[in-house]
Structures are given as structure tokens and as C-alpha cells.
């Protein structure tokens, strides 16, 4: 680790099978049973799976029909995102009782910087334990946590003792921990990258650490420097509260493929309505409209147009989307359409600075 980097106390809290656990909480008859949130119907995709379903190999982003084959007893449940959002707000309220440096990644996970905290507790491990106990006592749900000196290691550690567990990687344990780590466990190393690393003889953190910066940049481009640093315990990203949204989108997957632009315009009208509603709720507007098209053969195409002014009204979003739809001939029948607005007016706002404290290597975790 670099001696000039401040040692922080970072907690990554990750709810256990969040959507599925909420459904089991609200519907006691589903407790102990394999359930999948979403995934119903011929074209459905699993949003989340209970641990009972995961034992059969069911996981998020899996096609519903495949999930049903793997687990014949699987129960499909319609997602209720408003309910998940309601509980997520209660969880975050607990977080903010310990620190204002909270960076949500999604409804079910967040980073907390507790280097200095509202409880005056020097132990990040005890804070994490307290937070998990409160989530269970007050909301009836379990969470796992990872605790370490930076966001990268904390996130990797939170997956170690799932479900309903936590792992602390103390400053002096960071390098041995990373060297023994399977390369697939490194956050930011996906399936394709892992396969490429295997071909290069990289299977663990120790193997990765042996490669030079030049070697990693040659084979992995800009990501090479990231891999070079994280395996040495260096991750410079601070916990950023109030993360500034870069884009806002909505999309729909259809039960039957669409081959006529007329039918697509009808669907895009509903999608544009949803995007406009979300923009109004977030009180933002944007300049760049992007149309996302996924064809029946699963190839993906995006078409974008940047306007000279900010928009948020449905009529303007839909008008621009129509232009993009007719911009060129469709390559095939369509199974998914999406609209996103980026280049938002939030991007010009000043980002809040997270307070950091430089401390000695040996301190209570």
C-alpha cells in the first residue's frame, strides 16, 4: 500500500437477496421456499432469487424459463419496486445515524465512511455489527457487511460471509488477503476479463501482482492501471454522498417481437411517459436523447441525438425519439426498446467533498 494514502474506515453493507427477502417478509407463506422475483412469462428475466432458489443455480438476470427448469418448485413473484424503495429509505435512515458519508450504489447496498462517525465509536467492525442488528430488529431483514481501508476491499469482503455475516480486513491483512484472492472475486473483473486473465496465467491476486503496469495496460487498456493498483491495496475513490446522476432511462421487453414502427411508436409513447415522470421526480433535465434497440437476435443498437437545450417534457422526448427511430431502417424484429436522457443539468453542479482523515497504519478496526 502507498504510505501517502489516508487510511479510512469503510463499510460496505449489502442486503441479503433483498427483493426476495422483502417478499418473504411480507408473505410469510413464502418463507423457506425457492422464489424468484420477476422472471414470469415466456420472455421474463429473474430480478432476484431467494437463497433457497440459488441452491438450484437460479440467479438474477437469468431467463425465467431456464430458472423454472433448474428449479421445478420455483415460485415466481411479481416485483414491487415501490415497496423495495420504501424499505431502502428506512435502511438509509439507519446509516445516516452513524455517518453523513453514505454512498448508495442501489436500493440494497451502500458504502459508509465511518473514519469519524456520529457515535464516536473507533471500531468500524462494531459499527457494522450494530447496523446489521438494527436492520434485523427494526425491519426483519438480514444484511452482510465488509469492513476495510477502502471501498474496493470492503465490497469484496462483504461477499465473504453471506448471508447475514461480515468480514473485516485490517490494514496489516490487506496485502495477504488480496494475494490469496481468486481473480474472479476482484470487483470489476467480469466473466470475459477473468477468462482473458486465465489465458495469461493470472488466477489469483498474487499472479496479478507479478505483472508489470506496462503488461497490464498492454492487455487491458485503461483498466490495467486499476488492476495494478487495487491488488496493491490502492483504491483512491472516496465515499461520495449525493452521487450526481449521469443519466435517466426506462425500457421495456416485449412478450412478442415487434416488426412495425407503428407498434413501436405506441410502446415508445409509454416509455417516454415513464422517463418524463422520473425526470420530474428527480427534478432534472437533459440534452442527449438515446434510443436503445435490442433485436430478436439479441444484437444491440443505440442511436443518440444531442439538443442545444435541456428538455424534460414527454412531448419533446418522444419527438426526438421518433427521429431516432426513423433515422435508419431496422435490422430485424425488435424485442426491447428503451429511452434514456443524459448530459443532465446536474453534471455542472459542484460535487460535495468527502472529509478524509490521515491516520497511522495501526488503529482499531
UniProtKB/TrEMBL annotation:
Keywords: Cytoplasm, DNA damage, DNA repair, DNA replication, DNA-binding, DNA-directed DNA polymerase, Magnesium, Metal-binding, Mutator protein, Nucleotidyltransferase, Transferase. It comes from the Bacteria. Mg(2+) binds at residues 14, 108. The record marks 19 as: Substrate discrimination. This is DNA polymerase IV. Residues 10-190 form the UmuC domain. GO terms for molecular function: DNA-directed DNA polymerase activity. InterPro entries: DNA/RNA_pol_sf, DNA_pol_Y-fam_lit_finger_sf, DNA_pol_Y-fam_little_finger, DNA_polymerase-Y, DNApol_IV, PolY_HhH_motif, Rev_trsase/Diguanyl_cyclase, UmuC. It comes from Gaetbulibacter aestuarii. Its EC number is 2.7.7.7. Pfam families: IMS (PF00817), IMS_C (PF11799), IMS_HHH (PF11798).
Amino acid at each position: 500500500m502507498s504510505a501517502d494514502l489516508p487510511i479510512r474506515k469503510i463499510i460496505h453493507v449489502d442486503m441479503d437477496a433483498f427483493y426476495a427477502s422483502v417478499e418473504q417478509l411480507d408473505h410469510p407463506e413464502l418463507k423457506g421456499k425457492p422464489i424468484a422475483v420477476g422472471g414470469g412469462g415466456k420472455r421474463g428475466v429473474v430480478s432476484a432469487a431467494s437463497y433457497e432458489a440459488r441452491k438450484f443455480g437460479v440467479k438474477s438476470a437469468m431467463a425465467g424459463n431456464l430458472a423454472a427448469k433448474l428449479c421445478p418448485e420455483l415460485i415466481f413473484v411479481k416485483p414491487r419496486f415501490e415497496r423495495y424503495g420504501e424499505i431502502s429509505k428506512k435502511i438509509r435512515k439507519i446509516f445516516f445515524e452513524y455517518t453523513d458519508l453514505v454512498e448508495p450504489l442501489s436500493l440494497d447496498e451502500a458504502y459508509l465512511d465511518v473514519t469519524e462517525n456520529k457515535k464516536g465509536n473507533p471500531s468500524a467492525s462494531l459499527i457494522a455489527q450494530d447496523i446489521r442488528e438494527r436492520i434485523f430488529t427494526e425491519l426483519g431483514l438480514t444484511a452482510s457487511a465488509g469492513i476495510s481501508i477502502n471501498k474496493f476491499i470492503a465490497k469484496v469482503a462483504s461477499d465473504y460471509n453471506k448471508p447475514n455475516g461480515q468480514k473485516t480486513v485490517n490494514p496489516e491483512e490487506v496485502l495477504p488477503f488480496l494475494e490469496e484472492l481468486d481473480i474472479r472475486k476482484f470487483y470489476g473483473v467480469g466473466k470475459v476479463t477473468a477468462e482473458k486473465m486465465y489465458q495469461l496465467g493470472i488466477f489469483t491476486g498474487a499472479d496479478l501482482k507479478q505483472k508489470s503496469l506496462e503488461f497490464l495496460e498492454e492487455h487491458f487498456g485503461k483498466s490495467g492501471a486499476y488492476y495494478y493498483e487495487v491488488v496493491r491495496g490502492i483504491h483512491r475513490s472516496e465515499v461520495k454522498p449525493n452521487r450526481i446522476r449521469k443519466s435517466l432511462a426506462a425500457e421495456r421487453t416485449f412478450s412478442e417481437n415487434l416488426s412495425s414502427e407503428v407498434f413501436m411508436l405506441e410502446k415508445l409513447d409509454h416509455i417516454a411517459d415513464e422517463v418524463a415522470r422520473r425526470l420530474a421526480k428527480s427534478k432534472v433535465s437533459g440534452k442527449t436523447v438515446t434510443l436503445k434497440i435490442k433485436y430478436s437476435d439479441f444484437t444491440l443498437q443505440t442511436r443518440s441525438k444531442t439538443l442545444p437545450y435541456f428538455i424534460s417534457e414527454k412531448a419533446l422526448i418522444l419527438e426526438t425519439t421518433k427521429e431516432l427511430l426513423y433515422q435508419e431502417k431496422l435490422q430485424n424484429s425488435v424485442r426491447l426498446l428503451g429511452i434514456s436522457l443524459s448530459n443532465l443539468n446536474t453534471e455542472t453542479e459542484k460535487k460535495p467533498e468527502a472529509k478524509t482523515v490521515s491516520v497511522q497504519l495501526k488503529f482499531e478496526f
